[in-house]
């Protein structure tokens, strides 16, 4: 089989420009939601640390554990998506896994419970960006691929994950009495 630019078989038409735009937009929103959750725990950590009686070492381990499994999963899930080729299914499964782990983080009642949830969350989240990049590389016209990669990776994560997460969580972690509720109580109040 002859393969043209972008890994598409020669003679195979690309999807419409509208499909490409929707794909990039949805990938960007998906990654933005991932980053939103990642930022939420950072902003809420003073409350969570108090509720779970976490030491500074434990706080560092929670952040490091997620980053470590994220990095490993990026290689593993990225390779798996190349091998089996069903990127959409893997992206949906990774997003579902991340969502479940996010919920479990919210109901964690101990350091070990939170650490397990964050380790699994990193493993689920790690594959999202490599799969997204591969989808953009194969589905988007080469003339627009650089812009599409930038939007998919940075627009959602910076708008939702960095900017809106700070706006949404700033001050919301304190109750009217000044007490600091746990992340699960904040989520239940929303």
Features of this protein?
mainly alpha; disordered N terminus; disordered C terminus
Précis, in short:
The chain is built from seven helices and no strands.
Description:
34% of the residues are buried. α2 packs parallel to α4 and α2 (56-84) runs parallel beside α5 (128-139). The longest helix has 36 residues, at 17-52. The model is unreliable at 1-7 and 173-190 (pLDDT under 50). The protein has 190 residues and is mainly alpha-helical. The radius of gyration is 19 Å and the shape is elongated. It has helices spanning 17-52, 56-84, 87-107, 111-125, 128-139, 145-169, 183-189. Helix content is 76%, strand content 0%.
Largest sheet: none
The pLDDT mean sits at: 82
Task: List the total number of helices.
Answer: 7
Helical residue percent?
A: over 70%
Over the alpha carbons, how many angstroms does the gyration radius reach? Answer: 19 Å
Parts with pLDDT < 50 across at least 5 consecutive residues: 1-7, 173-190
Structural class, by secondary structure, is mainly alpha
Distance between the termini: 53 Å
Secondary structure: number of strands: 0
Topology:
Blueprint: H1 17-52, H2 56-84, H3 87-107, H4 111-125, H5 128-139, H6 145-169, H7 183-189
Helix pairs in contact: 1-5, 1-6, 2-4, 2-5, 3-4, 3-5, 3-7, 5-6
């Amino acid at each position: 089989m002859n393969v043209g630019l972008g890994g598409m078989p020669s003679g195979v038409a690309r999807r419409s420009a509208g499909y490409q735009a929707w794909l990039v937009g949805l990938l960007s929103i998906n990654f933005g939601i991932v980053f939103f959750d990642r930022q939420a725990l950072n902003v809420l950590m003073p409350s969570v640390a108090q509720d779970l009686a976490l030491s500074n070492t434990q706080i560092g381990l929670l952040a490091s554990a997620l980053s470590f499994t994220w990095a490993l999963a990026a290689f593993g899930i990225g390779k798996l998506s190349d091998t089996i080729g069903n990127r959409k299914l893997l992206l949906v499964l990774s997003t579902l896994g991340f969502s479940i782990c996010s919920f479990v983080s919210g109901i964690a009642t101990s350091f070990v419970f939170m650490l397990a949830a964050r380790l699994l969350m990193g493993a689920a989240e790690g594959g999202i960006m490599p799969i997204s990049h591969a989808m953009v590389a194969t589905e988007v016209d080469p003339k627009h691929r650089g812009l599409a990669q930038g939007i998919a990776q940075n627009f959602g994560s910076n708008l939702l994950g960095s900017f809106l997460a700070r706006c949404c969580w700033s001050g919301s972690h304190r109750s009217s009495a000044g007490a600091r509720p746990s992340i699960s109580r904040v989520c239940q109040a929303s």
